[in-house]
């Protein structure tokens, strides 16, 4: 039995049924974030990711809470995922582990977000305790790992996803970059295996153009959520949300 859970205001189940669609907000200023959120609130996506690493004032005291309060008001029916992606894993900014953990804890403590992305291997020894703390503050955690340079061998990809579950994550997510078609097929196979063997929902993607098939094949492999764009992409290979919805409707 999958450990599913309800997503945000709608309560739609993560890890069951149609893969959920998540649109990232990739913007630098409060005004841009507000405009993007208003646009996304009308689009067919169950989850909205705020990529806090793109926000110009993220390190200024009190600003994170200000943005989250604004987003919660605008995004009435969608679940909110808070993500600070470190430069080491393809994000916009460098961040010290202590600062990264503090920001995550402030986001969780605000009571305004539903999900928090935690980079599982930033400091593997402290990830489990950190995720537990976030969960105690009332959010679900998505443990994540990104390889923007290559696709590890299948055993290693499966090991990472399995390790995320062992660390106590509510969801395990892996994004890798393919160098050849076989890399994409390997990611798809690993996803199906992880879907069949792990208790928690799994999210995977093979990035770039070559990997696009992995973003639309959740109904086949069991990947529980896919990222799609409204304007700017947060990673290579994401497709517009309207196309994604149509494709998923056809495949399902
Ligand atoms: O982890 C992910 C997945 C992602 O990298 C993608 O490839 O769609 C996009 C990021 O915004 C998100 O945090």
TrEMBL record:
Biological processes per GO annotation: 3,4-dihydroxybenzoate biosynthetic process; amino acid biosynthetic process; aromatic amino acid family biosynthetic process; chorismate biosynthetic process
Top-level enzyme category: lyase
Keywords from the named record: Amino-acid biosynthesis, Aromatic amino acid biosynthesis, Lyase, Schiff base
GO MF terms held by the record: 3-dehydroquinate dehydratase activity
Lyase in keyword set: yes
Pathway where it operates: Metabolic intermediate biosynthesis; chorismate biosynthesis; chorismate from D-erythrose 4-phosphate and phosphoenolpyruvate: step 3/7
Keyword Lyase belongs to the record: yes
Gene3D superfamilies the record matches: Aldolase class I (3.20.20.70)
Function of the protein: Involved in the third step of the chorismate pathway, which leads to the biosynthesis of aromatic amino acids. Catalyzes the cis-dehydration of 3-dehydroquinate (DHQ) and introduces the first double bond of the aromatic ring to yield 3-dehydroshikimate.
Record text on subunit structure and interactions: Homodimer.
Recorded family membership: Belongs to the type-I 3-dehydroquinase family.
Protein name per the record: 3-dehydroquinate dehydratase
Source organism phylogeny: Bacteria, Bacillati, Bacillota, Clostridia, Lachnospirales
Underlying gene: aroD
